């Protein structure tokens, strides 16, 4: 069974067709820029553009950059504040006529990595950290998701961790991999102390270049730290899995 998965980020919206229950991306993902401002109307147009590219009709899974409780957006730090209090699944369904399942984007990436990627063999506590425009997190115990953690907003040296440890912070400050890895290490050590996980999976686009920074960033962290296997495509796969689960497919 094929499901369209869409991953909404602060800079890009990407989608792809995922074969379930295998969790395999069947075609190259397609990217469109995240509109600015990323209002509900503008972001809905981006979602419709991706659906049009794949000529898709059917269930759609979406990873959304913010906590989703009872279907409602609680915060949208990297999107328009107009999303707060809105139900994105209902907004997208009304615009397209198709069924949508919307979950937190880091939770989506974590689902993919825990079941089909770097966390497949770990049976206890796993933390997934995504480093991108912001920092996302997902927490799992024995394969079960504990949704809507916001570990990206831990305070490091009096500031939100996203200000120093996100991939965006590295780019904006033109930090070397070495300098940035020290900031990521401080963040990972904080996560390690607070959660005591058995495994930390680090994802986002920077995971493709993990050899440049992750060995240094993992020093002093008691948990095993590994890069995501599905890299920046984990969110697409996990979003499709969430939609598939609602239909008994994964």
Count of separate structural domains? 2
Helix content: 25-40%
Oligomeric status of the shown chains?
single chain
The arrangement of helices and strands along the chain is EEEEHEEEHEHEEEEEHHHEHEH
CATH architecture of the largest domain: 2-Layer Sandwich
CATH class of the largest domain, named Alpha Beta
Q: What is the radius of gyration?
A: 17 Å
| Protein structure class | alpha/beta
Strand content: 25-35%
In CATH terms, what is the fold-level topology of the largest domain?
Nucleotidyltransferase, domain 5
Architecture overview:
By secondary structure, this protein is an alpha/beta fold. The chain folds into two domains: 2-104 and 233-246, ATPase, nucleotide binding domain (Nucleotidyltransferase, domain 5), CATH 3.30.420; 118-229, Nucleotidyltransferase, domain 5. It contains eight helices and 15 strands. The protein has helices at 40-53, 88-96, 105-116, 162-165, 167-173, 177-195, 214-217, 234-246, and strands at residues 2-8, 12-19, 24-25, 30-33, 60-64, 68-69, 72-73, 100-104, 125-131, 135-141, 144-146, 155-156, 159-160, 199-203, 224-227. The strands form four sheets. Strands 1, 2, 3, 4, 5 and 8 form a six-stranded mixed beta sheet that branches. The N and C termini lie close together (10 Å). The mean pLDDT is 95.
């Amino acid at each position: 069974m094929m499901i369209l998965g869409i991953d909404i980020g602060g800079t890009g919206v990407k989608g792809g067709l995922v074969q379930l229950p295998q969790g395999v991306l069947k075609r190259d993902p397609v990217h469109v820029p995240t509109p600015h401002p990323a209002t509900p109307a503008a972001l809905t147009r981006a979602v419709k553009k991706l659906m049009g590219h794949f000529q898709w009709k059917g269930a759609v899974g979406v990873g959304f950059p913010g906590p989703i409780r009872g279907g409602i957006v609680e915060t949208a730090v990297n999107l328009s504040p107009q999303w707060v209090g809105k139900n994105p699944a209902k907004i997208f369904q009304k615009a397209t006529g198709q069924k949508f399942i919307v979950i937190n984007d880091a939770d989506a990436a974590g689902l993919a990595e825990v079941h089909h990627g770097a966390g497949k063999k770990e049976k206890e506590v796993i933390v997934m950290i995504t480093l991108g425009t912001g920092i996302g997190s997902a927490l799992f115990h024995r394969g079960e998701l504990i949704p809507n953690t916001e570990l990206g907003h831990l305070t490091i040296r009096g500031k939100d961790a996203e200000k120093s440890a996100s991939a965006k912070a590295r780019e904006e400050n033109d930090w070397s991999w070495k300098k940035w890895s020290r900031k990521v290490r401080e963040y990972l050590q904080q996560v390690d102390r607070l959660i005591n996980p058995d495994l930390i999976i680090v994802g986002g686009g920077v995971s493709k270049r993990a050899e440049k920074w992750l060995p240094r960033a993992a020093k002093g962290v008691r948990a095993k730290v590994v890069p995501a296997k599905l890299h920046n495509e984990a969110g697409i796969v996990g979003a499709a899995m969430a939609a598939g689960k609602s239909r008994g497919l994964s």
